[in-house]
Design brief:
The protein is α+β, with helices and mostly antiparallel strands and 273 residues long. 27% of the residues lie in helices and 33% in strands. The protein has two domains: 111 residues, no CATH class; 157 residues, Alpha-Beta Complex (Phosphoenolpyruvate Carboxykinase, domain 3). It has a seven-stranded mixed β-sheet with strand order 1-2-3-7-6-5-4, covered by helices on one side. Strands 8-9-13-12-11 form a five-stranded mixed beta barrel, surrounded by four helices. Strand 11 and strand 12 form a beta hairpin.
Length: 273
């Protein structure tokens, strides 16, 4: 089965269906387009049960071979970057385990192939345009998503936003992805919208926008980039894509208080351009 997953189409072999209700979400992202990456999926016969998703991830990068081995308590994977092929084994046949694997595979190949950036961010659609809010964990992404939803905005994601179309001549866009989040995925199909702006969040007692110089913009985008490991193999393309993003789309610092007034400030800033 092939899935539209942000900037990529990922083909998964060995996992065509599942009785978990969440599998319907993945089916909503089915694609007939040519695959960018193929994942050969296996389920361990060791009978691992009750594994925890939050264990540490280990990375081994072989620069000479152009390959990455990644392991966690719920799955292991060998990523051949040049061939765009992944050999992966799940510790248990659970959709949440599969979803976590798919998220990491997506992060690595989106960055390595310079297709775009996956950012630790929430993303919402307002007046037909996407606005992305980047932040560290527990510092406002989900809060902004909830406020936005209450005001009638379409929430594409609460935790990870895929931004692509950053090359010259393309239109920067954000697209929903079939990846499990802390809450329920709010969009069940690959909806996309042109990107209007990116705001880096900072909690405060008031809400206002602060301009950033280009170096600070690139730094904040690079810090928000969700690539899992800070190695040159992935950091160099991430920095290149961060530079392309800030050259195409406004990136600013948004000091905000937890109130609907956030959108009064953001709307005014967007109108100013």
């Amino acid at each position: 089965m092939r899935f539209s997953c942000g900037a990529l189409v990922i083909e998964v072999l060995g996992h065509e269906s599942h009785d978990d209700p969440y599998w319907k979400v993945f089916e909503g992202f089915a694609s007939g387009a040519r695959a960018d990456v193929t994942v050969n999926l296996h389920v361990s016969d060791k009978g691992w049960h009750n594994v925890e998703l939050d264990g540490p991830i280990t990375w081994h990068i072989d620069h000479a071979a152009g390959a990455i081995d990644i392991g966690i308590s719920t799955w292991i994977a060998h990523l051949d970057l040049g061939r765009r092929e992944v050999e992966a084994t799940l510790a248990c046949d659970q959709v949440r385990t599969f979803a976590h694997l798919l998220a990491v595979v997506n992060q690595v190949y989106t960055t390595y192939l310079k297709r775009g950036l996956n950012l630790h961010a929430s993303a919402v659609v307002r007046d037909g345009r996407a606005v992305v809010f980047t932040a560290r964990s527990e510092t406002g992404k989900s809060t902004v998503a909830r406020i936005s939803k209450e005001l009638g905005c379409l929430v594409l994601t609460e935790e990870m936003a895929c931004v692509f179309g950053l090359h010259e001549g393309d239109v920067p866009v954000v697209q929903a992805m079939p990846l499990r989040e802390r809450g329920d995925l709010l969009v069940k199909e690959p909806v996309r919208a042109p990107l209007a702006a990116v705001y880096s969040l900072a909690q405060a007692n008031d809400t206002y926008v602060e301009e950033l110089d280009r170096i600070q913009q690139v730094k904040r985008i690079a810090m928000a980039s969700a690539i899992g490991v800070r190695d040159a193999l992935l950091m160099e393309p991430a920095l290149e894509m961060a530079g392309q993003l800030v050259d195409r789309v406004p990136v600013k610092l948004l000091h905000f208080e937890r109130s609907p007034r956030l959108w009064e400030v953001v709307d005014a800033d967007l109108r100013q351009g």
